[in-house]
Amino acid sequence: MAGTEAGIVDVAIVGSGPAGLSAAAHAAAKGMSHILLEKTDHLSDTIFKYQKGKHVMATPAHLVLRADLDFDAGKREAILETWDRQIAEHKVEVMLDADVTAIEGEAGNFTLTLKRGATVKARAVVLAIGTQGNPNLLRLPGADLPHVQYQLDDPTEYIDEHITVIGSGDAGIENALGLAADPAQGNVVTILNRGADFARAKGANVKLLMEAESEGRIFVRRETSPAEVKPGELVLETRDGQESIRCDRIIARTGSKPPRAFVEAAGVGFTSEEREAFPALSPSFESTKPGIYVIGALAGYPLIKHCMNQGYDVIEFLAGNTQLKPADEPILEEKFAPLPGNRSVDEWLALFGRTVVILQELSVLQLRELMIDSRAHFYRKGEVIFERNAPGSSMFAIAQGSVLVEVNPADPSVTVPIGEGSIFGEVGLISGRRRGATIRAAEDTVALEFSRTAALKLIATTPGAARAVNRISIERQLLQMFGSGLTPEDLAEITDAAVVEDKRAGEVVIKEGDDDKDVFVIRRGSMIVEKDIGGHPVFLSYLPAGSYFGEMAVIDGSKRTATVKAAIKSQVVRFPGEAFVKLLDRKPKLREKALADMAGRREVNAFIESRKDSFGDAADYYSQTAKFLVDQGIGEATDVLLIDETLCVGCDNCEKACADSHDGLSRLDREAGKTYAHLHVPTSCRHCEHPHCMADCPPNAIKRGPDGEVFIDETCIGCGNCQRNCPYGVIRMDARPPKKPGLLSWLMFGIGPGPGEASYSWRKKKAEASGREAPKVAIKCDMCSGIEGGPACVRACPTGAAIRVGPERFLAVSQSERGA
């Protein structure tokens, strides 16, 4: 694009963030006529708005930087100074206070109109405007109060305040760290994370946050979201219901969205209608509007190195260098080298984007970034991809070929196929459980493996991927639940109409007497079923994850006969009852199963009604017992230890047996915990369906076994994150025990602490004698995994007081001492 006409430049670059600066500097270096338009009175507004003193990372470390400007990790102020100086040295044509309000025309002759009335003419336009100018505003009562802000300029300005940061991406974490950096400021800093994982943040930032939490400088609230802002107070929605905390200031860092109206008005199309979607771009960054190119955060590449490389590359493309390959090309070439077919990187990426359903809305640029953190595998026909019960939380996608799922452990020939373009392994990703089945390649297969971090980020940032994973996981849950020979095609109408809904603890999902006709599946959490008897709620049953409800009113057309509400923060799948009835009409076996389930529930209702005059204290007892058990974490447990106080004689055999089975360290505190009536819940692991302790375990030392047991392996580094994250106090940090002498040595020579648990003082003394501090590790109940006979605590109880129960029996034990 050499040569210019009077009044028209080769390229107008809108936005002076890292991408725009790099593009302008390279245009100047190549002698291309250009203009860099920045709406503020300074360059690089994105970095300029970073908090003062912020350390700016230069990730990914293995990516080569292509730019005419320097960039290394360092302080915000030093980076801005370097860029200001080098932009001047390169004689870049800059126009400040140049807010572009419209882009009109065609390739070769665009007119950019500025807010102040002036116009700029250009043959090509590069949009590098980012998204930071369009923050996502809080949508909750009180969000317009003056102590809510969306930017943090200088964290040292705030002293002795209770400050809550909403948002757990990089910006939110960095703001929280800045506010808590100097203890002398006296700030009480809390950060809210809607989920359990920090899917949107860099690993280095998450590590710093975990360190700050362990040191007590920051309170990290997981699976918590804001519900209402009040003067000096913030109401939170937690797993266990609402609570309020003191809050003098809110820093809301909930992301930002592209200035879509402006971009679309220029003729640029997006990948979908979702507000999180990005513009549709070619590999050379050209949009659907010829002559308009998009780079940087607006293209879905927010990292500074990526942005600067794109700025360099887009100018090369405009200058006619069609052979230029992206800076990450060597990395991807190495990743794809083991794959068959001698395809180029571009050809493989095109295949992945075309075939794999969760990748179909990604631009080539986003797909390249994803593949940097992922792996591509080639499996021969019959080769095992992973084994049943193997650890693993990654997710796979089938780019070519197909796989077979061995659904019957006793007969490997019983298989279910998963075809090209679909995914598998999503159960391990969502729940953290071990692999539920062995999967083999049904034919020669190319599969992509996304690490847990990469997969969660993909789902969190790409609407199409989230939609596809959601649909597939719902379909598979329904197939597993309903059985009866159903196929995905049988469930198509239901899965198409299904909606995933989050329910706070105590929230009513179905209300007795209502006339709605939806059916629900519990995807996560648990529900309590109650019936109104004489103006009082009477507990009927408990529904764990994997149950369905609501079908009774749908099948017989009646009103709701009971109230169903969330025991803890839960997630349900809602689908229209009409579609469910159609499915029953087509599948007689499923109808029989549904009618049998319904008959059982009707019997319970009829029994309650027949005894309503004689319930009295018993009804209240059952309801209070149910509430007590749910309050003690039963609502999210998969296995829990209960002790019947009417049978317990206090011998402590359960604790001693636990210690003897675990190197002298008991995982059980019998006396601790709460009691209601005859039921005692001691301090022992609940093996939660979605364990709090698994969140933020740096070495991934916490696993779930084949029987649902949550255990900590030998890779534990003693960081204490699991202990802090567990809401039930069932994990403790203790000295790794030295080898304990045998019973004979104790009997004959008095060596060692004797039978039972080695006391902490003995372990510490032995460690000190060796001249070193006793290293600590996290210990918790593992349900005596690998020990024949099952949990030692139950086997050792002489009276049968100690019992371990699963979800289907949690509340049945409350009836053991009283008849109905």
Structure description:
InterPro entries: 4Fe4S_Fe-S-bd, 4Fe4S_Fe_S_CS, cNMP-bd_CS, cNMP-bd_dom, cNMP-bd_dom_sf, FAD/NAD-bd_sf, RmlC-like_jellyroll, RnfB_subfamily. Residues 639-671, 676-707, 708-736, 775-808 form the 4Fe-4S ferredoxin-type domain. Residues 358-459, 482-601 form the Cyclic nucleotide-binding domain. With 820 residues, the protein is an alpha+beta fold. The protein folds into five domains: 8-133 and 257-327, FAD/NAD(P)-binding domain (3-Layer(bba) Sandwich), CATH 3.50.50; 148-252, FAD/NAD(P)-binding domain (3-Layer(bba) Sandwich); 330-474, Jelly Rolls (Sandwich); 492-612, Sandwich (Jelly Rolls); 626-736 and 775-815, 2-Layer Sandwich (Alpha-Beta Plaits), CATH 3.30.70. Helices cover 28% and strands 24% of the residues. Strands 1, 2, 5, 6, 7, 8 and 17 form a seven-stranded mixed sheet that branches. A five-stranded parallel sheet has the order 9-16-10-11-12. The chain has a four-stranded antiparallel sheet with strand order 18-25-20-23. A hairpin with a 5-residue loop joins strand 37 (702-704) and strand 38 (710-712). Helix 4 runs parallel beside helix 5, helix 12 (452-461) crosses helix 13 and helix 16 crosses helix 17. The chain starts with 7 loop residues before the first strand and ends in a 15-residue tail after the last strand.
